[in-house]
Amino acid sequence: RGRSAEHVSFAVRRVAGVVLALYLVVHMVDISTLLLGEDAYQALLRVFASPIGLAFDVLLWVLLVLHGSLGLYSAVVEAGLLLEKRKSLLAAAWAASLLLVIVGAVVILHVMG
What we know:
mainly alpha
Protein backbone atom coordinates (compact mmCIF):
# COMPACT_ATOMS: atom_id res chain seq x y z
CA ARG A 1 0.00 0.00 0.00
CA GLY A 2 1.32 3.40 -0.90
CA ARG A 3 3.98 1.95 -3.17
CA SER A 4 4.51 3.00 -6.73
CA ALA A 5 4.49 0.62 -9.67
CA GLU A 6 8.26 1.01 -9.87
CA HIS A 7 8.68 -0.10 -6.24
CA VAL A 8 6.47 -3.13 -6.79
CA SER A 9 8.31 -3.99 -10.01
CA PHE A 10 11.66 -3.72 -8.24
CA ALA A 11 10.46 -6.05 -5.47
CA VAL A 12 9.05 -8.56 -7.99
CA ARG A 13 12.33 -8.56 -9.92
CA ARG A 14 14.36 -9.12 -6.76
CA VAL A 15 12.16 -11.94 -5.48
CA ALA A 16 12.21 -13.60 -8.90
CA GLY A 17 16.00 -13.35 -8.97
CA VAL A 18 16.35 -14.95 -5.54
CA VAL A 19 13.99 -17.80 -6.42
CA LEU A 20 15.82 -18.40 -9.71
CA ALA A 21 19.15 -18.49 -7.86
CA LEU A 22 17.73 -21.06 -5.44
CA TYR A 23 16.42 -23.07 -8.38
CA LEU A 24 19.96 -23.20 -9.77
CA VAL A 25 21.00 -25.16 -6.69
CA VAL A 26 18.00 -27.49 -7.03
CA HIS A 27 18.85 -27.99 -10.71
CA MET A 28 22.41 -28.99 -9.84
CA VAL A 29 21.03 -31.57 -7.39
CA ASP A 30 18.53 -33.00 -9.85
CA ILE A 31 21.17 -33.33 -12.56
CA SER A 32 23.36 -35.18 -10.10
CA THR A 33 20.77 -37.98 -10.02
CA LEU A 34 22.52 -39.19 -13.17
CA LEU A 35 25.21 -40.44 -10.81
CA LEU A 36 22.62 -42.73 -9.23
CA GLY A 37 21.94 -44.45 -12.52
CA GLU A 38 19.56 -44.36 -15.45
CA ASP A 39 16.57 -45.65 -13.47
CA ALA A 40 16.82 -42.88 -10.86
CA TYR A 41 17.13 -40.24 -13.56
CA GLN A 42 14.15 -41.62 -15.50
CA ALA A 43 12.07 -41.59 -12.31
CA LEU A 44 12.99 -37.94 -11.82
CA LEU A 45 12.01 -37.14 -15.40
CA ARG A 46 8.60 -38.73 -14.78
CA VAL A 47 8.12 -36.39 -11.81
CA PHE A 48 9.01 -33.41 -14.02
CA ALA A 49 6.45 -34.55 -16.61
CA SER A 50 3.69 -34.82 -13.98
CA PRO A 51 1.13 -32.05 -13.49
CA ILE A 52 3.08 -30.75 -10.47
CA GLY A 53 6.28 -30.73 -12.51
CA LEU A 54 4.56 -28.87 -15.34
CA ALA A 55 3.18 -26.30 -12.89
CA PHE A 56 6.69 -25.84 -11.54
CA ASP A 57 8.03 -25.34 -15.09
CA VAL A 58 5.38 -22.70 -15.76
CA LEU A 59 6.26 -20.97 -12.47
CA LEU A 60 9.93 -20.95 -13.45
CA TRP A 61 9.00 -19.48 -16.82
CA VAL A 62 6.95 -16.74 -15.13
CA LEU A 63 9.85 -15.87 -12.83
CA LEU A 64 12.36 -15.87 -15.68
CA VAL A 65 10.21 -13.60 -17.84
CA LEU A 66 9.47 -11.18 -15.01
CA HIS A 67 13.08 -11.01 -13.91
CA GLY A 68 14.28 -10.47 -17.47
CA SER A 69 11.75 -7.91 -18.63
CA LEU A 70 11.79 -5.87 -15.43
CA GLY A 71 15.58 -6.08 -15.38
CA LEU A 72 15.68 -4.74 -18.91
CA TYR A 73 13.39 -1.89 -17.85
CA SER A 74 15.70 -1.11 -14.91
CA ALA A 75 18.77 -1.18 -17.12
CA VAL A 76 17.25 1.26 -19.60
CA VAL A 77 16.06 3.66 -16.90
CA GLU A 78 19.27 3.47 -14.86
CA ALA A 79 21.24 4.23 -18.01
CA GLY A 80 19.30 7.48 -18.21
CA LEU A 81 17.46 6.52 -21.37
CA LEU A 82 13.78 7.27 -21.99
CA LEU A 83 13.37 8.84 -18.55
CA GLU A 84 10.46 10.94 -19.75
CA LYS A 85 8.64 7.75 -20.79
CA ARG A 86 9.28 5.69 -17.65
CA LYS A 87 5.62 4.97 -16.95
CA SER A 88 4.97 3.86 -20.52
CA LEU A 89 8.13 1.81 -20.57
CA LEU A 90 7.19 0.07 -17.32
CA ALA A 91 3.70 -0.64 -18.65
CA ALA A 92 5.26 -2.06 -21.82
CA ALA A 93 7.57 -4.27 -19.74
CA TRP A 94 4.60 -5.67 -17.83
CA ALA A 95 2.55 -6.12 -21.02
CA ALA A 96 5.42 -7.92 -22.74
CA SER A 97 5.83 -10.09 -19.64
CA LEU A 98 2.18 -11.04 -19.69
CA LEU A 99 2.30 -11.92 -23.38
CA LEU A 100 5.49 -13.97 -23.00
CA VAL A 101 4.12 -15.75 -19.93
CA ILE A 102 0.95 -16.75 -21.76
CA VAL A 103 2.77 -17.93 -24.89
CA GLY A 104 5.41 -19.77 -22.86
CA ALA A 105 2.84 -21.45 -20.62
CA VAL A 106 0.88 -22.67 -23.64
CA VAL A 107 4.05 -24.03 -25.22
CA ILE A 108 5.18 -25.72 -22.00
CA LEU A 109 1.80 -27.33 -21.43
CA HIS A 110 1.40 -28.32 -25.10
CA VAL A 111 4.87 -29.78 -25.56
CA MET A 112 5.29 -31.39 -22.15
CA GLY A 113 1.67 -32.08 -21.21
